[in-house]
Predict the 3D structure of the following.
Amino acid sequence: MIHQVATRLKDLHAAGFVHRDLKPANIMWLPRENRWTIIDFGCVARVGEVASTGFSIGYAAPEVIRAYRNKENWLAVSEALDAWSLGVISYELMTGEKGVDMRRGADPVSHPIPSQQVNVE
């Protein structure tokens, strides 16, 4: 699943766009085509464009969270935003746990949840 979603992101990025709202709810199984795909392109922006800091809690890249907390409503868009989200989704799939601590004031970069704390058995 992760490989197929990463391939879809690669295609989107090659076309010059960033999804900006990648989360499990926006990944869909297409049984007739026997593949996973990305849905909900309502937040898509062009790479390099300055766009609003809309996001989904728990899947947004650290720079998006920081901009939001600093009341900066605009952020330059890059492929890294989607890469972070896919990493969080991958972590959740492999460990069964949330990869980012989104308690009020928590910083996903300075205080990530160490994978050693997760029981994968």
Q: What stands out?
A: The chain has a mean pLDDT of 85. The longest helix spans residues 79-95.
